[in-house]
Amino acid sequence: MRTPFVLSWALMLTTFSAAPARSQGADLPADGWIAWASTRSGNRQVFVMKATGNDPEDAVQVTKNGGARASWSPDGHWIGYATLNAKTHVIRWDGSGDKEICDRDFRFWTWDGKAICGAYDGVPGRTFSYSAVDPDTGKKTSLGKWNATALNVFTKVTPMTLTHDGRYLGLMGGLGSRFKDANGTTVNKAYVAALLELSSGKLYWVGYGCEPSAPPVGGLLYHVRGDNPTEPDIYRVTISELVKNNRSSYKPEMAHEDSAWGHEYWPSVSRGRDNSWMIYGATTGCHAHDACPYDFYIHKLGAGNNARVKVVTWGDREGQNNHWPSLYVGPMWQPPKHGNGMQIVADPTAGGDVFDSGIEIISVKDDPRDPTPGSDRDSGSLGAGDDAGADGGLRRNIDSPRLARGGCRLTNSMPVADLVACWLALCVVALRPAGRRTLRDRQALRARQFATSVGLILVLSLLVFAFHNDIARYWMN
Hints:
Elements: H1 5-13, E1 32-38, E2 45-50, E3 60-61, E4 68-72, E5 79-82, E6 88-91, E7 99-102, E8 105-109, E9 115-121, E10 127-133, E11 140-147, H2 148-151, E12 154-162, E13 168-175, E14 179-180, E15 186-187, E16 191-197, E17 203-213, E18 220-225, E19 233-238, H3 239-242, E20 251-254, E21 263-269, E22 271-272, E23 277-283, E24 295-300, E25 308-312, E26 322-329, E27 342-345, E28 360-363, H4 416-431, H5 435-438, H6 442-476
Parallel strand pairs: 22-26
Antiparallel strand pairs: 1-2, 1-26, 2-3, 4-5, 5-6, 6-7, 8-9, 9-10, 10-11, 12-13, 13-16, 14-15, 16-17, 17-18, 18-19, 19-20, 21-23, 23-24, 24-25, 27-28
Helix pairs in contact: 1-6
């Protein structure tokens, strides 16, 4: 049965206009996604936003019970974060699948997709035990422990990153009054970044400062330098040269004056299919990680000191704090299809505000009149947290974050029942209050409610008019 023109036109009236998006030029990855933690909603929570989106309108809160130090897994399937009571959790980009995978604090990801968690034993900072956890299966593998006293180096030590080849572990920590690194250089500073060669136990001094960060590919290491004229700044070094006591590659990646939002922290190279971007936090005249008004910038690696774009801006409002940003570039994880019938899905490839209004209807059962069965409607998947039961009916979860933009996918052969169900679901999504997850103001919500109400009235009026004419023609004939 073909879709009636009246219903098709009325359905288009109830889809929502696209929110303005940041330019998707060479200055930002068009398919980039940011995850971070913020206090903007009261308690610290994890948020997600498209890199080309507009903060705060397009930012979506994905945790319910607090979270810190959010970080994308290398494949983008999970966001790892530390709970407010120092446990390791993972969660999907859409807020589904939240689960504890380790009863110790989250540290970082290995590049083969394991979450590293650990805790200090005894005197804080002196002995650290750690484990690698598979986020899908929950399998935990103990990686042992080390003792800072045995290294004769750090009075406090924190593991921060692992190089892509698994050879070096990046550490930061305080130093005693005298320390010689593996190259014999005498160091006497409160905080340094260092590389620990796991096979030999040799320790290589990277630089004064903190927060070493290894990218998913390549031989560079980044860290926050704390003893240069515009400190703190983000520096890079080639690891193969560093371990040979050659520091000629030790140069700034981002180094702005403090007054120009040059208090730079948390360097992190993008994960996913494009590793040519860096996201980091910056503020001015303030230092505390968990209290100061940090904004986030995205920077094209090697493009120069001024090649940066501010993407998260709520740090300068009402004393709110953003920290530890992470960037993933590539297609978003989608759950597998289940059953048959119709599915409402989240489509992360849609334009504009991907989390915003609109739904997509996908009929899994092939229509014999479709010249390419399965090519169009079978391409979808269940939305986050959707009911995957065996009833084969309409599947939805409007309690998930805002569903993807794109509206209903209309086809000439769509059954009327499917079309009506699609339109009704659109009305439900539009009329539902924004609540905890949307952060949209009341005016935008009322505008959507008004537009949907007008569309509903128009549809009902047109249906009554068409039905009345059909009856009149029936009796006249």
